[in-house]
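Morning. Coffee machine broken again, so started the prediction first thing and wrote up yesterday's gels while waiting. Chain of 144 residues, entered below exactly as on the submission form.
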Amino acid sequence: MKRRAVLLCLGALPLSAFAQVDLGSLTSAVKNPLMGMLTSQLGVSESQATGGIGSYLTLAKEKLSKGNFDKISSLVPGASNYIEQARSLGAVTGPLKNLAGLNGALGKLGISSETASQFVPMITDYLGKAGGSSVQSMLGAMLK
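Came back before lunch.
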């Protein structure tokens, strides 16, 4: 009986090495799939993703009516926190006005122009799928 217990423990040791997962990033990806998608697919840090989402939402807040912005912000848990983080990280220091301003904010976060060219469409696509075709159209118009 003791032998069986020892063998079971020894068999579980290799599995414990694989079980050391970063639960913080896993938890944030589960809480906000958008953050998880940006960090895993684009390789940006959590603070870059946070500041980038906040910058995107800042532009949306500037360009959309309150009702339309409320639709967008309801698709992003903690939207106002992202906007505040974009400001505190120094990405947003004034009005963004357009896509060039948004790309400038992403650059302040250390996001390369190549990554930014993928970052913005990923957020637009994610929100468009979550909110439907009317949201997709609204966001496409906002970025022109």
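The chain has one domain: 41-142. Going to sketch it on the whiteboard this afternoon.
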